[in-house]
Design goal:
- By secondary structure, this protein is α+β, with helices and mostly antiparallel strands.
- Helices cover about 40% and strands about 15% of the residues.
- Strands 3, 4, 5, 6, 7, 8 and 9 form a seven-stranded antiparallel sheet that branches. Strands 12-13-14 form a three-stranded antiparallel sheet, with no helix packed on it.
- A hairpin with a 3-residue loop joins strand 5 and strand 6.
- Helix 5 packs across helix 7 and helix 7 runs parallel beside helix 9.
- The longest helix is centred in the N-terminal third of the chain and has 32 residues.
- The chain is elongated, with a radius of gyration of 31 Å.
- About 15% of the residues have low confidence.
Length: about 475
């Protein structure tokens, strides 16, 4: 393939100069495959150029550390780093596999098929006789050319060849597995990994149903993009793992999420000591007890959710751990809004500490929503009560309508079942929930959705 062949494509050149709405049906039908073929020629030319740069050791500039990074940056935004990496890999292996390169450049092989065949021939199973490699390469090219075996069929063929010669296929080689989880400067956690097919199958199976779109209250499509749905599903999967307590004991405890928080943050009080209570705090959070020796802290934890409460006294500051606010054990700071959401249904361990952070008194654990109340909630709500949701009760949290830290009671008249997605929505948006005269949950939408904020009945119920 040469540049002259690309320049000589008059049909594609004519399409570039045409107004598409003026083209006839026949021109549209003929134009699509012509453009597709031209795109492949240009892609093959790009691979050839990159291969030549690699052979010569060309360094495009001093800004980008590798050819892959440079390729992804020129032009900016047209190629991801993953796409750039595949181009560089294909260019490299095709230089050593001219038969595969010829089939690719002629348009007989797609890029991913050429890369898979060339990579196999470059690194065949150790027990495969070297004289058999050209034979297998020829057979693989013939069976995949011009729409023969697709990528899945080729993978099956390569897996069988590796299996026949006693080599573990790359997809099943657990020694190649990698998983990274690193915290960024803004407190988020970046996940990156490369796992074997069996582990990947378990992951994709677990995420499949959990990442399905959830219609809105009026039946409108789920506004979350697929990537966000999968991230929410991953969160739910981890939460269920902790819920069942199946993990190993670490530090003498089953896996759970631990949050350290001062009662000041949980109550949103100012802690200025101007109140009439014994400890000088209007919110009634127990400042008197904490004030006798210091400030209140708590480690709140449960499978998948955590929260905490305690008292605080004079001079205790506005946050836990010396005024730094709510803290998680691994990833650090947590907002008060998220802390209050986690505290809806968790195990509470109040700990009274002094100004140096030394525990003075350890309270008993107290589950805010006992099993008996949760059973009653399931009888009443049956599922996530948010209008239009209906996710199973097993996937829900027990949400306090009036937060427990604000004096709300832990009883049927102050709790409602919400799935994790809608639990977050209630805590972080203008949606409100209340118990109506029918003793069932009702939801008041934000003004952006309904200027009149007309209450909506819980899922599965109708307005009277």
């Amino acid at each position: 393939m040469g540049i002259g062949e690309i320049r000589g494509d008059e049909q594609t050149a004519a399409l570039l100069d045409a107004e598409l709405w003026q083209l006839s049906d026949a021109q549209l039908i003929a134009g699509v495959p012509a453009v597709t073929a031209q795109i492949h020629r240009l892609q093959a030319l790009r691979v050839g150029l990159v291969g030549e740069m690699t052979d010569r050791g060309v360094v495009p500039d001093r800004v980008h550390p590798s050819l892959k990074n440079w390729l992804a940056a020129h032009p900016v935004g047209l190629l991801s780093e993953g796409e750039a990496a595949r181009i560089v890999d294909l260019a490299r292996v095709l230089r050593a596999q001219p038969e595969v390169a010829a089939a690719y450049e002629s348009g007989a092989l797609r890029g991913e098929l050429a890369l898979a065949i060339a990579a196999f021939c470059e690194d065949p199973p150790p027990r495969m006789p070297q004289e058999r490699v050209p034979e297998y390469r020829k057979v693989l090219i013939e069976h995949t050319s011009h729409g023969g075996l697709g990528i899945q069929g080729l993978r099956r063929a390569l897996t069988k060849l590796r299996d026949d010669y006693g080599q573990i296929p790359p997809a099943e080689d657990t020694d190649r597995n990698e998983f990274y989880a690193s915290q960024t400067l803004n407190g988020r956690v970046v996940i990156k990994g490369d796992i074997d097919s069996e582990t990947g199958e378990m992951l994709l199976t677990a995420l499949s149903k959990l990442s399905a779109p959830v219609p809105g209250p009026g039946g409108e499509p789920d506004p979350r993009p697929a990537a966000l749905r999968r991230a929410d599903a991953f969160t739910e999967m981890l939460r269920r793992f902790h819920d069942c307590g199946a993990g190993p004991v670490e530090g003498g405890e089953k896996p759970h999420l631990t949050v350290l928080v001062n009662i000041h943050d949980l109550h949103h009080c100012d802690g200025d000591g101007d109140g009439d209570g014994e400890g000088g705090c209007e919110c009634g959070c127990g400042g008197g007890e904490a004030g006798q020796g210091g400030k209140g802290e708590a480690a709140g934890h449960s499978s998948g959710s955590g929260g905490s409460r305690s008292g605080h006294g004079p001079g205790s500051g506005s946050g836990s751990a010396g005024g730094l606010g709510p803290q998680m054990m691994w990833t650090g700071p947590l907002s008060r809004a998220s802390t209050r959401r986690l505290a809806c249904d968790c195990i509470i361990t109040p700990i009274i500490i002094n100004d140096d952070g030394v525990p003075l008194k350890l309270g008993r654990k107290d589950r805010l929503v006992p099993a008996s109340l949760r059973r009653a909630l399931i009888v009443r709500d049956r599922c996530c009560a948010f209008p239009g949701c209906g996710r199973p009760a097993a996937w829900t949290d027990a949400h306090h309508i009036v937060h427990w830290a604000d004096g709300g009671e832990t009883d049927l008249s102050n709790t409602v079942l919400l799935c994790r997605y809608h639990h977050r929505l209630i805590h972080h948006s203008e949606w409100e929930v209340f118990i109506g005269p029918d003793l069932c949950p009702w939801f008041r939408p934000p003004r952006s959705r309904d200027p009149d904020r007309k209450p909506l009945p819980a899922h599965g119920r109708t307005a009277a």
